[in-house]
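## retry 2 of 3
previous attempt timed out at serialization; input unchanged, resubmitting
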Amino acid sequence: MPLFTSHELENATRLLPDWKVDSEALQRSFDFVDFVAAMRFVNHVAALAEQHGHHPDIDIRYNRVLIRTWSHDSGGVTERDLQLASAMDRLLLLRAC
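## retry succeeded, writing output
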């Protein structure tokens, strides 16, 4: 899958304002009321990742979850990363966790 140019990435992330570009990846921090809520979210993210066939890096610190996603095989951010980031945002909005 082709990498986004910096201009394409800038335009695409306007639709994902809570996500930041961190070197070669998209990154976002999610805060929850406690560890259980954070883990519930992570479990839902795992299911989304399987559906998308694309797996992010996940760092869990009590009630904070840091997600980094990039396409390892392409060496940067691609359409798959934006789709997964958008799906995680929708998951949070639906309060499915």
